[in-house]
Specification:
Elements: H1 3-14, E1 24-28, E2 37-40, E3 46-49, H2 59-70, E4 76-80, H3 86-89, H4 92-98, E5 101-106, H5 116-128, E6 133-135, E7 141-142, E8 148-154, E9 157-158, E10 192-197, E11 200-204, H6 210-217, E12 228-230, H7 242-248, E13 252-255, H8 265-272, E14 279-282, E15 314-318, E16 323-328, E17 334-338
Parallel strand pairs: 3-4, 4-5, 5-6, 11-12, 12-13, 13-14
Antiparallel strand pairs: 1-2, 1-15, 2-3, 7-8, 8-9, 8-10, 10-11, 15-16, 16-17
Helix pairs in contact: 2-4, 6-7
The chain binds zinc ion (2 copies).
Length: about 350
């Protein structure tokens, strides 16, 4: 090694950049009410959860690709599609042209094949993922190196045994009020998972609806407590029952809502009543909900209607000791939390 290179490396080490362990990074890509969550493990491996909407200008594919570039990714190792609605698989054909995708994981065949649009999107997915597809069952582990990801729900089936440390009875179940039948049944097929990194626990349930949430938390809580909760179903009141939210007791919630999708007052109320909840972050200001009911503006990544939206990200960076910092990339505002 030349003296110059050695000196440069030594300088980097002094600056604390030498072999510093990488953090787990989670990016919420704003897709105007679509879902796309990018997870980059400390190992450098990546998993994208859902590919948001199809748009004539490939808006969401470009936004996801920009987040991949920001994270320094050459490829997406795993694409997890929670279910086959257009706001979760829409940009896949365009995205697959921008960046290679390793493996595809999902719940199995769509249950809405009688709808021509769903059937066409599903068929395109099957072709795209040929030879690289894995159908997930509850209890499966998703092999993203450096973190532990456990599937807790898939194709309408929940895990039957509690996750380690979970299993306490849930007293709130006595007050559960069932909703009517879900009009878009593929929501209930959503893959849901818990990601654990050290003490830190993150949950993403796709669009699983109110009645199906019960399978995981009633009569006993099979999940345990969660640090960071991606509000289910874009923060809609078709999901996010008090029995579910108050069982997992998140410290931080991130709502991947859109300007006109998700974030009704009732969901904010359930979140704010949840024991131990400290903050709610939002991908979008919910324009149909009073401003004072939305979270503090500095924790909202996008404020305007879709036509003017810049698609700012929310990012969470988690260290090996379980300390995590959430940042609004619109204004740089951030806050740090401790895992439980
Ligand atoms: Zn959705
Ligand atoms: Zn859906």
């Amino acid at each position: 090694m030349s003296r110059k290179i050695f000196a440069a490396l030594f300088g980097l080490c002094l600056a604390g950049l030498c072999a510093a362990p990488r953090n787990l990074e989670i990016y919420w890509i704003d897709a105007e009410g679509g879902a796309a969550t990018l997870i980059v493990a400390p190992s450098g491996q990546s998993m994208l959860v859902d590919t948001a909407n199809r748009a004539p200008d490939d808006r969401d594919a470009k936004r996801i690709f920009a987040a991949c570039q920001k994270a320094g990714l050459q490829k997406i190792d795993i694409l997890l599609t929670t279910h086959f609605h257009s706001d979760h698989i829409g940009s896949l054909p365009a995205l697959a042209k921008l960046i290679p995708i390793g493996e595809y994981m999902d719940h199995g065949e769509s249950v809405e094949m009688a709808r021509p649009q769903v059937a066409a999107a599903y068929k395109a997915y099957v072709e795209q993922s040929e030879g690289k597809r894995k159908i997930l069952k509850p209890g499966d582990q998703i092999p993203l190196k450096g973190v532990d990801i456990r599937v807790i729900m898939s194709a309408g089936q929940a895990i039957t045994k509690p996750l380690p440390g979970a299993g306490a009875p849930n007293a709130a179940c006595a007050d559960f009020q069932a909703h009517g039948v879900e009009p878009d049944p593929d929501n209930d097929q959503s893959v849901g998972f818990v990601l654990q990194y050290g003490k830190f626990r993150f949950i993403d349930m796709g669009d699983l609806t109110w009645n199906y949430e019960q399978k995981l938390v009633c009569p006993s809580n099979l999940i345990g407590k969660i640090d960071l909760y991606q509000t289910t179903h874009h923060g809609l009141d078709r999901s996010n029952s008090p029995q579910f939210v108050w069982a997992i007791q998140p410290r931080v919630a991130v709502m991947n809502d859109g300007p006109r999708k998700g974030g009704p007052a009732s969901v904010f109320e359930i979140l704010r009543k949840s024991p131990g909840l400290e903050d709610i972050w939002q991908g979008h200001l919910a324009l149909g909900t009073p401003k004072e009911v939305n979270t503090d503006e500095k924790m909202i990544a996008n404020l305007g209607p879709s036509a003017q939206c810049e698609g700012n990200l929310i990012e969470a960076s988690v260290d090996a000791k379980g300390k995590y910092t959430v940042t609004n990339l619109r204004n740089g505002f951030s806050k740090t939390y401790e895992s439980r």
